[in-house]
Each structure stands twice: as structure tokens, then as C-alpha cells.
Amino acid sequence: SPSDPDLVARARAAKERLGDKVFVLGHHYQRDEVIQFADVTGDSFKLARDAAARPEAEYIVFCGVHFMAESADILTGDDQKVVLPDLAAGCSMADMATAEQVAECWDVLTEAGIAERVVPVSYMNSSADIKAFTGRHGGTICTSSNAERALQWAFEQGDKVLFLPDQHLGRNTAVRDLGMSLDDCVLYNPHKPGGGLTAQQLRDAKMILWRGHCSVHGRFSLESVEDVRARIPGVNVLVHPECRHEVVAAADQVGSTEYIIKALEAAPAGSKWAIGTELNLVRRLANRFAPEGKEIVFLDRTVCFCSTMNRIDLPHLVWALESLADGKLVNRIEVDRETERYAKLALERMLALP
Ligand code: 13P
Ligand code: SF4
To answer: Where along the chain is [4Fe-4S] cluster bound (predicted)?
Structure first.
């Protein structure tokens, strides 16, 4: 998208005024007009790891969504302030697991007599409350780039995993990477009493998957994969693991946003790719690699942007940077101490995974 030259100049000037006091992080799904101002770009794992890279920065401006900004606050110093340029930039998947629902689920597992054998593994795309629940019950956080190692670790601690909140990442990792069968997985529906499962089903399952999903990635279908293969002979289909199981099973490669970028960097000239992830990133990659003769298309033209990622636009970024440069702290994301303590435990378990 063309950036307004006046706003670009204002963002540049405000960033210059702030100097080392500000550190701007940008997720790969951000708009071009915003990502150009990021000091570091990455997938959710890289951004969590790098959030603490500049302890001297008073402000961390997070161009991404709410759960990422919360994680940055948890992992950075108490005197560092994390700012989200638009507070409405949430994540519909993260909203699919609330603290009350997860506490109720734990009661259900306790009644079924299995809670002490269950290790929670929560996707980064969850609220700080869910991360704290995970830490309190001996579990770990994972992202799409380390879900396999997180699950392996969890199965060394217990014999069952409660995977929150993305059923697809949980199922795809269990089946594709750990060699489990679909029958080893059950789906816990937080809107039904007992999760819609019998105690026997819970006792038999290895993976208890929370019924959450990403509304963007959930729209890629097996048909999208078949169509693109028919349209572009020799195409490599590369999708994000938040896609549905049948899509992942039909793809050639699966990985996080950072993985997708690395795979395309390493791809030979003349290769053809259909990418199943958010549109801002796919467009940027198509433009970047076209001069090298790599043909990159969007896996399904009916799937659109992540609307909440897109809420961070240049006007919001300019407003945030100018406010901070004027000494006005706006849109701070701050996790309370008690939540932070346990959420940090779970995040640190992830960062320590081999
Ligand atoms: P990555 O960790 O792969 O960047 O994914 C984050 C995300 O929100 C995908 O929808
Ligand atoms: Fe959440 Fe999906 Fe958007 Fe990622 S793409 S931030 S999972 S809604």
C-alpha cells in the first residue's frame, strides 16, 4: 500500500527524536507502511526472544497484536514500557480461550481423574492469563516454530497434553511431527458441559485439543491446494501450521512466518510457490522475489488480511511515536505482577527448550 509521504516523514522524525529510547518490533503480517519502521522483524518466537534485546530502550513499540505486546511486557524489564499503537489490535484466536473457561476445563480433567497427568501447552496466541495458567500447572508456551519440541518436552513430563487454544497447530504437530494418529486427539469444546466429552474419552486421549482456530488460516481449504496444483504445474505449496489438517497434509512444506521467508530465500530461481498465510506477508514476498525469477502466489484469492494485524497502520504508528517523543505515554500494555510471574515461568520454559 502506498504510504502517505507526509506521514512517513513524521514517523521518521519522531523516531529520530526518540533515538535509543525507542525500540520498534514488527511482526511479518504488518503492513508495508508500518514494517519499514521496525528495528527488528520476526515471527512470534523471534519477537519474544528479541523483545529483551535492548534493555536501554525505555519504550518498546510493538507493531503486532495484543498477545505479542503482553509477552514483550512479561519478558522485558519493569522500567521498560510496551506500547501497542492501536489497542483494538487483538487476535480472535486468543479470545477463544478465557481464564474462566480454562479453569472450568481443568475442573473437568480433575473430575475425570487425569489432571495430574496432563501437561498444558499453550500457543503464544493466548492471553497472559492463559499463559499464567500454563505456568502454574507446569506447562510451557510454544509458537509455530517450536511446537514439535514443546510437545516432545511435555510428553516427557506427563502422558497427556492439553493444547490451547489452536486445535489445528496442536493436531498438525501431534500427527505430522510426533506421528500420533487422529484418534489420539479429542476436541474440547468450551461451550459444552464437560467440553462435550465423556470422562472415558478424556482418559483415552493423548492430546486434548482446545476448540480454537485462526479465522484467517481456517479459510484455506483442500480445494485451494488442489486448484493451485492444477493451475500451476510444479508448484510448491507452503502453508502455516494454523491451517486445517487436510490442508497441511496436502502441502509440500509447513512452517512459521519466519520459516516461510527462509524457504523462499533459499528457493532456486524459476521455482513456483503457493503460500498459505496472511496476505500482507505473501504480497511482500511476491514483490521481493519476483526480480529473482521466483513466482509466488497466494494460495487462495478469497482469503484476506488479518484484520486485527492491519489495525496498526501508519497514522496509528505516527500518533504513538509522536506522543512518546512529546513525553506522553500512550497505549501501554502492562500485565499485572501475579499474572506476569507465572506467565513468565511458562515463557521461559519455551525459551529454554533444546
Ligand atoms: P508466526 O509465529 O508464525 O509468526 O505466527 C503468528 C501468527 O499469529 C500466525 O497467525
Ligand atoms: Fe490471530 Fe490469525 Fe491474526 Fe494470527 S492471523 S493474529 S492467529 S487472527
So the answer is: 91, 214, 306
44 is in an annotated binding site: yes
Q: How far apart are CA 74 and CA 176, in angstroms?
A: 31
Give the model confidence (pLDDT) of 33-86 as tens digits. 999 999 999 999 999 999 999 999 999 999 999 999 999 999 998 999 999 999
- Give the distance (Å) from ligand 2 centre to CA of residue 171: 17
Going from the N-terminus, what domains does the chain have, and what CATH number goes with each? Answer: 5-90+309-335 (3.40.50.10800), 94-214 (3.40.50.10800), 217-298 (3.40.50.10800)
Q: Is residue 143 lining ligand 1, measured as CB closer than 6 Å?
A: yes
- Phi/psi at 54 (5° precision): -125, 75
CA 12 to ligand 1 centroid distance, Å? 27
* CA of 350, nearest ligand number: 1
Distance CA 136, CA 156 (A): 18
Q: Is 242 among the annotated ligand-binding positions?
A: yes
- In contact, 235 and 210? CB cutoff 8 Å: no
CA of 257 relative to ligand 1 center, distance in Å? 6
Please give the Cα distance from 203 to 225 (Å, whole number).
36
As for ligand 2, residues whose beta carbon falls within 6 Å of it are 65, 91-93, 125, 214-216, 242, 278, 306, 308-309
Query: How many CB atoms within 10 Å of residue 107?
Result: 11
Distance of CA 186 to the CA centre of its chain: 22
> Once rounded to an integer, what is the mean pLDDT over residues 310-321?
98
